Amino acid sequence: MNASDIITMLKDRQPTILDYEKYRKYAILLPLIEVNKETHILFEVRSKHMRSQPGDICFPGGKVDQEDPDEKHAAIRETSEELGISEADISEVIPLDYLVSDSGRIVYPFIGRISNVDQVSPNASEVDEVFTVPLTYFLQTKPNKYKVDLQVIPEADFPYELIHGGENYKWRMHQIDEIFYQYDGKAIWGLTAKILAHFIELLKKEPFTL
The pTM is what? Predict the structure, then answer.
């Protein structure tokens, strides 16, 4: 195969994320609701019986199934299932920036409006409780930020003899920011806080009236 054949083969190809098919895909909804004529954000407290992150505060969401036509549909479906509301009560769903993580996940966040909030009946197998926080709180409150170092630990049979420096190889250490919002005794952190902070940054870039 010569260079011209390679160029012909690949010239119309659209790039995507390397190993995209191996990533686990999740969709999340940041729900906006109205409380006493004021915009609030709704959060869930994960059931303490969940295998993953029990008791953590999160937004509704979950894995994108093969049956889902797209990520938006998955976010609406998961929100409907977790909050016990009709999909018709979820409207004006708009995508935020998606995240690609080192842990092999792609997370697709959306914002959307939820009506008929009095009909919310959380799925007890997944959700211990729901609560809301006024949007103005996050617009006026700067989160606390902490550094987390991620350590590289090769497996026992790692072939050190094949790399320069061997067991003394200088691995590049990776550091991430973990941010925390605290409201009424509840700590919002992790992926939920990251998506929330992204949403607030978008709002602050555009002039609007509270």
Answer: 0.88
